[in-house]
Amino acid sequence: PDVPVIVHSWDVDPVGTVWRRFADLLACGDIPSGLGYELRRLARELDGLDPDLAGHIVDPEVRRIIQRKRDVAGAPVSEAVAGELVSRLTASGVHPAQGLLDLAQALVVARSLVRTDEGSGSNGDNAGHRAA
Q: Model-level pTM?
């Protein structure tokens, strides 16, 4: 199976600042559960392209993908959530193409966290609350 590999410095608390946030967005239905996989497919398609060219493609393509996604209520993903996701592309100072892969992998891991919470009967800290 295809297992995501994510590297974060523990100084930035990746569980609290990245994975838990994404898990909350997924659990509340603010982003679709397959978004990480679709972004990972895009990252793989861009792999091998000239890094500068890929860098110019990443931001608008990620925005396009997110804009056509729907939350669990059938509404488009909110601008605030879309902006938060896109901002992660360069948040760590990496090239946007690497940021895309990091974002995709983090969403896949977060999806696993949501499934783990559901399997254990836990609803997480934000049960019943929709993320902003």
A: 0.76
Report CA 54 to chain centroid distance, whole Å: 19
- Give the gyration radius of the chain's Cα atoms: 14
Helix (H), strand (E) at residue 106: helix 96-120
Q: What is the spatial distance between Cα 46 and Cα 77, in angstroms, rounded to a whole number? A: 24
Q: How far is CA 10 from CA 7, 45, 49, 122, 132, in A?
A: 9, 30, 31, 25, 26
d(CA 118, CA 123): 6
Sheet strands (E) in 43-99: none
What span, in angstroms and rounded, lies between the C-alpha atoms of 78 and 128?
18
Residue among 107, 81, 97 nearest 22 (CA): 107
pLDDT tens digits along 110-125: 998 887 655 555 544 4
CB 71 within 8 A of CB 31: yes
Cβ-based burial of 122 (10 A; exposed 0-12, middle 13-18, buried ≥19) = exposed
